[in-house]
Write a structure and sequence with these properties.
Blueprint (H helix, E strand, L loop, with lengths): L10 H4 L5 H14 L5 E2 L11 H12 L12 H15 L8 E4 L2 H12 L5 E6 L4 H8 L3 E6 L10 H7 L4 E7 L11 H8 L5 E4 L22 E6 L12 E4 L2 H14 L5 H13 L1 H25 L12 E5 L7 H12 L1 E2 L1 E2 L10 E5 L4 H31 L1
Parallel strand pairs: 1-10, 3-4, 3-5, 5-6, 6-7
Antiparallel strand pairs: 2-8, 7-8, 9-12, 11-12
Bound molecules: pyridoxal-5'-phosphate.
The site of pyridoxal-5'-phosphate has 13 residues, from helix 5.
Length: about 400
């Protein structure tokens, strides 16, 4: 009898690719442990503090013994506060029974993909793409079908291209607006066009509220359609480490999602849920202050990157990233990010993390202090000048040879 393998890894784990932004960050941490200081523009993490009301609410909840499990779908009071927030921001009435609270937006995405995808099923995904989506889809046995969007037209989703991508195996269409990594906002007409297929729309709205120059974001919650709307506290409220998010789902999805949540996660952290209620009720002024700050930082970073020779055809409308064309410094974004980390001590995310459409680009996060942006730009300048000269010499040699 053959000996059973004791260290067998399930095939689906081989479908997972490392999250490069995290890889760069972890490498930067090792450099910092060795006493080298690094400017972190690689990870989508606000340097701002969470609203004071949220931190106070956690301390209070702990002192009051709010340490047990909660309803698997989340505290009723939090789900009511989330519903009131949709009413306040979009004028949409959401039944709290259709809300499921999770430990960050990521588990909500995993639950929804697990609910909808059988092996071989397809999900239509505009690209460049938040790297975890294709990993979630493949992990569930599904196939992401990418629909490219281009910087030249503001990364707008082309509905004709969506039509070409939809097939009998399509189980959902994904949209992320404002988008990580492009910062693009999709219009209400585009969302309606996506809904035209009658397929579930998975709308990741984790950056809503973070839009600039008076741009407003349309929410899929406003559509008369089967929408799964994902959101959370990580970005808008600068609460990444609290691990708190939610999904608003169609009523036919609530019960199976609840069953999955009960089995896989039991519930989100109860005392953290109190922070969520406080953030929604009292954090508005903090969000507005941070948003105005991000707008200034965006302009500072875009101006600086253009000066250094990066291509930024369009200033991003939302989220807190710039996806910049870096091809004059080298074609391989992974190599380039590595060189910039080693030589300039600046963390950036290689464009390839967001799919082949973003190869040759680097993503910079501007949710950091202004001084960090200025420091990064001045550290990058000499290294980029050398890289540009190298690239030019190389292409001249190639032309001669
Ligand atoms: C588009 C997008 N969705 C989801 C997430 C995950 O957020 P959370 O911290 O709520 O799990 C991120 C984090 O970077 C993101 O950029």
């Amino acid at each position: 009898m053959a000996t059973p393998s004791r260290r067998h890894l399930a095939d689906r784990t081989s479908e997972l690719r490392p999250f490069l932004a995290m890889e760069v960050m972890e490498r930067a941490f090792r450099m910092e442990d060795a006493g080298i200081d690094v400017v972190h523009l690689e990870i989508g993490e606000p340097a701002e503090s969470p609203p004071r009301a949220a931190s106070d609410a956690v301390a209070r909840a702990l002192a009051e013994g709010e340490t047990a499990y909660s309803d698997s779908r989340g505290l009723r009071s939090l789900r009511e506060a989330i519903a009131a927030d949709y009413d306040g921001r979009f004028g949409v009435r959401v039944d709290p029974e259709r809300i499921i609270v999770t430990s960050g937006t990521s588990p909500a995405l995993l639950l929804a993909f697990s609910l909808l995808i059988d092996p071989g099923d397809e999900v239509v995904v505009p690209a460049p793409v938040y790297p975890c989506y294709p990993n979630f889809i493949r992990f569930c046995g599904g196939v992401p079908v990418f629909v490219p969007t281009e910087a030249e037209n503001g990364f707008a989703i082309d509905l004709d291209r969506i039509a070409e991508a939809v097939s009998p195996r399509t189980r959902a269409i994904l949209v992320n607006s404002p988008c990580n990594p492009t910062g693009a906002i999709q219009t209400r007409a585009t969302l309606e066009g996506l809904a035209h297929w009658g397929l579930p729309i998975l709308s990741d709205e984790i950056y809503d509220g973070l839009t600039y120059d008076d741009r407003k974001v349309a929410s899929a919650s406003e559509l008369e359609a089967d929408t799964f709307v994902f959101d959370g506290f990580s970005k808008r409220y600068a609460m990444t480490g609290f691990r708190l998010g939610w999904a608003v789902v169609p009523d036919w999805a609530t019960r199976p999602l609840q069953t999955m949540q009960q089995n896989f996660f039991i519930s989100a952290n109860r005392f953290v849920q109190h922070a969520g209620i406080a953030a929604l009720k009292e954090g508005g002024p903090d969000v507005e202050r941070m948003r105005l700050g991000y707008q200034r930082k965006r302009d500072l970073l875009v101006g600086g990157l253009r000066r250094l020779g990066f291509g930024v055809p369009r200033v991003p409308d939302g989220a807190f990233y710039v996806l910049a064309d870096a091809r004059s410094f080298g074609a391989d974004s992974r190599d380039l990010a590595e060189v910039l980390l080693e030589r300039a001590r600046v963390g950036t995310t290689p464009g390839i993390d967001f799919g082949p459409e973003a190869e040759g680009m680097l993503r910079f996060c501007y949710a950091v202090e202004e001084e960090a942006i200025e420091e990064a730009l001045s550290r990058l300048e000499p290294v980029l000048n050398e890289l540009r000269a190298d690239t030019q010499r190389k292409s001249e040699r190639e032309e001669e040879g």
